[in-house]
Amino acid sequence: AEVAAAAAEKAKLSSVVEIPTIEGSDPESDPLDAFKNVLAAQLSKLVDVNIKIMYDALEAPRASENGHIALSVARLRLKGNPTEIAADIVEKFQLNDYIKLAKADGPFVNFFLNHIKLSQALFKKVYDTKENWGGNKRGENRKVVVEFSSPNIAKPFHAGHLRSTIIGSFVRNILAANGYGVISMNYLGDWGKQYGLLAVGFERYGSEEKLLEDPIKHLFDVYVKINQDAKENEAVHDEARAYFKKMEDGDEAALKIWSHFRDLSIVKYREIYARLNIAFDVYSGESQVTDGMNRALKMLHEKNLLTESDGALIIDLSKYKLGICVVQKKDGTTLYITRDIGAAIERYETYGFEHMYYIVASQQDLHLKQLFKILELLGFDWAKKLTHLNFGMVGGMSTRKGTVVFLEDILEETRDAMHEVMKKNEHKYAQIDDPMDVADNIGISAIMVQDASARRIKNYDFDWKRMFSFEGDTGPYLQYAHARLCSIERKTEMEVNPNADLTHLGDSRAAADLITMIARYPQIVRDTISGGKFEPVNIVGYAMKLSHHVSQALESMYVMGAEKDVAEARLFMYWSARITLGNAMRLLNLKPQERM
Ligand code: ARG
């Protein structure tokens, strides 16, 4: 009798669930994958297709009225007419505990999930993982270097640097969410003849006091003045060259003043980056490249890749359609590309990275192609582990005061403009404790989201008006959606109950849509790095859709005023939505606002 009972128990269990493992799916960290895998298992038997191929053909339907998971029959590459096959699948499909409804729609089959069952696994997962929710361990024990921002000391921090900062930080975050060990690196432009010129300028126009006050602006002023002098008087150039030569030769006095400039600038940069919610693991720079460069030159020589031309050393890359690269000037000094070659070699030696990403404007496409080619010609097999993630230009980023932009001025102006927008809603404004801080944070969100709203390679124009709007796909809209969810939690004065009975969410379409949207988050996190696309717009688009579904649900499903069990279930749903939205926003480098 006991044996029979055990057998019956086992039969019952296996009729309920048997979650198969499928390569590339992750039911452990992604509850929606459990549904997909169960679905793929049945479907793969129905039409005799490999389960992995079936899993890969399951996608998110374009619109939520088309259900929660769609099978694109065409992707199965079966013989026969996909529309007929879809109809056939629907006829044979056995509904179960996971799938409530299957509908044919041309060459697609749309599946509607048991959203209550999904919510039970899902919200629990969110509750257990909180700020790590959505992440995975794919990159475990793999080290990657992400180099971004990389402004030039004494020169303006221009729109290209701002984009590199925003995109780079996103790349850092999304890799970290996928479990990679990321080293974020700022490779400052801090070496070259210009810094000889700057030192000469400082002797004439510099002030230690002003330098301490605002190194970035003061060095820029000095640089502008000495450039003017140099234009009128060629001798200034000679002085600068001589000074830089001293620096390259390691002259202590020359290096001391230069490193003073560098150190103070870094202090200031750190401050500005902190305001943007960004920190670097390493402040490197062109000046930090040491013997890697000389070793590279020696290797190039041994491999017969160097040619002398007019006293300078060049590499001819014309047979790769990459032109000619000067790697050493007549006077023996190095160049931007030379330092990049040395830097890459030294970074590989230091970090043994599995991959390195350069987040640099597309204006430098050629430069990076040359760099990667030279490293390949040097015989480094890790040259194929280097990727240039490029991006288009931003237009119209100038302040009201003028066309020279300092990041700080842009941030000031953004904050003030956002503050003006906020003041228009007097009632809300009165409730905010520290409006300037809030304006700063939301203003920065506006900039970041505007930047992340199109594919990287697209050019765009800074649109001071649009980006501050609380409507449309903007940073303020996301912040508002997040703050609204926080306010629901505050007002109910209930603790989130992880054991809430979720059957009380009922049969509403708004709930089913919101739950499925929350459930898609881990997949979005994985997909954003697969294929090396790294498009922040994926996450922006997701966060927007999630916010829309939240406001749709809020139209009919209140927490306040609902009966206790119902309120608890709904609160757990909105809380899970808030955690998910917050995590997505943090990937985009935003600081989610709790009140505004
Ligand atoms: N400092 C450079 C510039 O402002 C960007 C550096 C990009 N990174 C590199 N490894 N070359 O143009």
TrEMBL record:
Catalytic activity: tRNA(Arg) + L-arginine + ATP = L-arginyl-tRNA(Arg) + AMP + diphosphate
Entry GO CC: mitochondrion
Assigned keywords, A-Z: Aminoacyl-tRNA synthetase, ATP-binding, Ligase, Nucleotide-binding, Protein biosynthesis
Keyword Protein biosynthesis: yes
Gene Ontology terms for molecular function: arginine-tRNA ligase activity; ATP binding
Biological processes per GO annotation: arginyl-tRNA aminoacylation; mitochondrial translation
Domain DALR anticodon binding: 478-596
E.C. number: 6.1.1.19
Boundaries of every Arginyl tRNA synthetase N-terminal domain copy: 33-113
Signal peptide segment: none
Family affiliation: Belongs to the class-I aminoacyl-tRNA synthetase family.
Name assigned to this protein: arginine--tRNA ligase
Organism: Entomortierella chlamydospora
First-to-last residue of the parent protein present: 184 to 779 of 779
